[in-house]
Amino acid sequence: MEEVAAVAGPRDDVASARSRFRPWRWVFSVVLLVLLAQLAVFLVGNHRFQWDVVGKYLFEKSVMSGLLTTVVLAVAAMVLGSVVGGLVAAAQLSGFGPARWVATAWVGLFRGIPPLVQLIFWFNLAYLLPKLSLGIPFGPVFGSWDANTVITPLTAAVIGLSLVESAYLAEIFRAGMGAVDPGQRDAARAMGYPPGQTLFRIVLPQAMRVIIPPAGSQFVNVLKGTALVSVIAMSDLLHAVQVIYNRNYEIVPMLLVACFWYLVVVTAATAGQRRLERRFSRGHVAQRRSR
Questions:
Q1: Angle CA 187–192–194, to nearest 5
Q2: Where does the pLDDT of residue 194 fall: very low under 50, low under 70, confident under 90, or very high at 90 and above?
Q3: Domain ranges of the chain
Q4: How far does Cα 164 stand from its chain's mean position?
Q5: H helical segments located in the chain
Q6: Is residue 132 within 8 Å of 147, Cβ to Cβ?
Q7: pLDDT digit string (tens) for 234-279?
Q8: Distance between CA 111 and CA 174 in Å, rounded?
Q9: What angle, rounded to 10 degrees, do the helices at 204-225 and 153-178 form?
Q10: What's the mean pLDDT in 205-223?
């Protein structure tokens, strides 16, 4: 044993070990600092950015109104899309064939057509249906309204964005619920839970850990996608800055105003998403750390 120890030599002391020198990390850090410095000089030194104009219109009343419209549109599309998407996801996971076929066709239709095309289509719905009626199919009509009065830019934007979101969220919900161990449903069934209670008390709380990250990213996408409603004369954030730069011809500064507020809202939404992720991952993270 002594000969083996002598051949092996003294053992390394971990406490006195030093980290290995990695020159490429230092090179990367230096290059990154140089690029950041160059970017800062470009942003500050280029007078064509006209930061004074940006500051002047940053809190303009019309810009704030457009920002509010953008946020309201994104929240409305996300809420309505979540409700419809949840129903579509439940239909996809059901054992009833016709429901699955309709849900699959729904996802394929509204996910396959570009959102801009859908917005323009819903805005021109009055061409196909001059009158919108409510009643029993092939039976009496309870009420009828002029389509041009009902389909305003706001309603067209909400309908179009909500339908697009419902298709994407349906797939997100389906993947999240499919990630839950089937044994959880079997255990709930054995304990006498009805299907609705099993879904809302057993399946969804566990599925939220998988659902929230892509759903949060989808909210960011719809928040940025609201810029498309400017083509149907909806006064969102982009439309508000377009009106201003069409009047004063300060295109780049006004676009910087829009970029600033988009970044602010997206950053706030991302922070909220991170909090929700931590909340719904508490038990899972604790279990993973204990292993």
A1: 100
A2: confident
A3: 52-130+146-290
A4: 12
A5: 2-8, 23-45, 51-57, 61-93, 97-112, 115-123, 125-128, 147-150, 153-178, 182-190, 195-198, 204-225, 237-248, 251-280, 282-290
A6: yes
A7: 888 999 999 999 998 888 999 999 999 999 999 999 998 888 888 8
A8: 15
A9: 150
A10: 87
Q: Which residues pair with 145 in a beta bridge?
A: 132
Question: φ, ψ for residue 146 (rounded to 5)?
Answer: -70, 125
Between residues 99 and 132, the one the model is more confident about: 99
Q: 3-state SS string over 219-282?
A: HHHHHHHHHHHHHHCCCCHHHHHHHHHHHHCCHHHHHHHHHHHHHHHHHHHHHHHHHHHHHHCH
Q: How many CA atoms lie within 13 A of 222 on its CB side?
A: 33
In CATH terms, the fold of domain 52-130+146-290 is MetI-like fold (1.10.3720)
CA distance 87 to 106: 11
Q: What is the pLDDT of residue 43?
A: 85
DSSP 17: -
Q: What is the DSSP string of 202-223?
A: IIHHHHHHHHHHHHHHHHHHHH
Task: Give the amino acid at 253.
Answer: P
Q: How far apart are the C-alpha atoms of 57 and 241, rounded to whole Å? A: 9
pLDDT for the residue numbered 244: 92
What is the distance between the alpha carbons of residues 7 and 86, in angstroms, rounded to a whole number? 68
User: What single letter denotes the amino acid at residue 199?
Assistant: L
Give the number of other CB atoms < 10 A from CB of residue 271: 9
Reading the block at residue 245, the tokens are: 């730069």
Give the DSSP H/E element, type plus range, for residue 141: strand 141-146
